[in-house]
Write a structure and sequence with these properties.
single chain; alpha+beta; 17% strand
């Protein structure tokens, strides 16, 4: 079968990728800052390449809330990786899809002819999100610093109240839409109600996510994960949010988190707050030939869509539908899917929307339903509910893992998609082509051999 025609003027290839383990936030700053995660994700990837870090034309990273000393974190990471002073780098921010936006930006740059070889990916250390001062406290500090006399200082001091010290939690602010005033969990409740997604359905999806991730860890199906070490020498070699001991009975005991006391969305069927990073090498056909690179997959097309922020979780449906239409494909033409699990309810609502004729007609502008995404082809090794959702990194992670799944199953096409805070959706179609091996006739890339490791769930 001929390769699917893409939107890019020149072919764009994914060569290889790696990521850190996704580490669950546990109530305090995690062991790694944003930049460290980005470096640990990219360094082993670069070491496998037949070129040096200085041969990249650009470095593009997605991130939403890097630390105060990590402005334009892509540039920080590029310099610390040894890319050199003369290699430009920039950071993109599209909330949950920042990592996918980095890949799309890289693809656009290569397709235009501006670049041939790019390091792209996503980074987020959500546990490192800052605590901010309340604006009233900032105003008080301004009056204190502005007082020049002793009397002025006393007057400012008399206006101080202990309540001014209450911090503003940046993470909670970032997970709340300022336009509609709803946090992401409340939007998940809304679409669950719209499509009659029950608590039992959500919990079953969440349980499957954990069991699939645990099985993948046991069978070594996540070879893109690179072990990392903290300053004390402790090793982190797997996504540690997995709960292989989870059961429907345990999940059923959890209370609603966002719509108390009657809601259905709980911590157990929601994505975890997590730290992690992913990096990929994106190349042109010329770079593939020049360095004799093995091709993992081709980025065929990317679609971005928008909808009401109050139903942001349906974003993937709004992006997947036009992506399939533009390529003349149906859901059954897609071998595997990765839809980021922001919430179990959200993924289930996307599936329901795509097979609902009325929704597709009224909101997607179609004459009939798009069709059904089979659960046995979706997130086959788990997703955000079990391994976490470090928002800047997830878009890159799902594309990287989808490429690995296609490779492992000798499959052709896959779609990766995410909902995006603020009411957007993104979807990327990738494709494996046997014809690409003739570009440089390299041997098929062989993943590093590792003995299967037994991973015990955290208590």
């Amino acid at each position: 079968m001929a390769a699917t025609k893409g939107i890019y003027a020149r072919p764009v290839y994914l060569i290889d990728g790696s990521r850190t383990p996704f580490l669950k936030a546990r109530g305090k700053p995690g062991p790694f800052k944003h930049a460290e995660l980005g470096i640990y994700a990219a360094r082993p990837l670069i070491q496998r390449m037949p070129f040096s870090a200085k041969d990249f034309d650009e470095v593009i990273m997605g991130s939403t809330m890097p630390g105060p000393d990590e402005a334009n974190i892509a540039r920080v990471v590029a310099l610390r990786l040894g890319c050199g002073d003369d290699i430009p780098a920039y950071t993109v921010h599209r909330n949950c899809a920042s990592g996918m936006q980095a890949l799309d930006s890289a693809a656009m740059s290569i397709a235009s002819g501006r670049s041939e070889l790019i390091l792209a990916g996503g980074i987020e250390a959500m546990s490192q999100a800052p605590l901010l001062l309340h604006p009233k406290m900032v105003s008080w500090l301004a009056s204190w610093w502005g007082a020049k006399s002793f009397v002025g200082k006393l007057k400012a001091l008399s206006a101080f109240r202990p309540g001014l010290l209450a911090p503003v939690i940046a993470l909670l602010k970032g997970l709340t839409d300022p336009v509609v005033g709803m946090n992401m969990g409340q939007t998940a409740e809304q679409i669950a109600y719209r499509f009659d997604i029950s608590r039992e359905m959500m919990d079953q999806f969440a349980l499957d996510s954990h069991l699939r991730l645990h099985a993948a860890q046991q069978s070594d199906d996540l070879r893109e994960v690179e072990a990392i070490y903290d300053t004390d020498g402790k090793v982190y070699d797997h996504d540690d949010g997995v709960r292989a001991d989870s059961t429907l009975e345990k999940l059923a005991k959890l209370r609603p988190a966002f719509d108390k006391p009657y809601g259905l969305v709980t911590p157990g069927n929601s994505a975890q707050i997590t730290d992690g990073a992913a990096a990929l090498v994106v190349a042109s056909e010329g770079a593939v030939k020049k360095y004799k690179l093995p091709v993992m997959a081709r980025i065929v097309s990317t679609e971005w869509a928008a909808l009401s922020p109050s139903e942001m979780g349906l974003g993937p449906a709004h992006a997947i539908a036009p992506l399939l239409k533009s390529q003349g494909l149906k859901p059954e033409s897609i071998d595997f899917w990765e839809i980021n699990e922001a919430f179990a309810a959200q993924v289930l609502a996307v599936i329901a929307a795509l097979k609902n004729k009325d929704y597709c007609k009224d909101y997607l502008g179609l004459r009939s339903a798009v069709g059904e995404i089979p659960l046995d082809r979706l997130n086959i090794h788990g997703g955000g509910v079990s391994l976490g959702h470090p928002v800047g990194a997830s878009g890159a992670r799902i594309v990287l893992h989808l490429a690995r799944v296609l490779e492992a199953n000798n499959a052709k096409r896959g779609i990766a998609s995410l909902c995006i805070g603020g009411g957007q959706g993104g979807a990327m179609l990738i494709e494996r082509e046997t014809s690409t091996t003739s570009i440089a006739s390299p041997k098929k890339a062989t993943p590093k051999k590792r003995s299967p490791k037994k991973v015990s769930p955290k208590k």
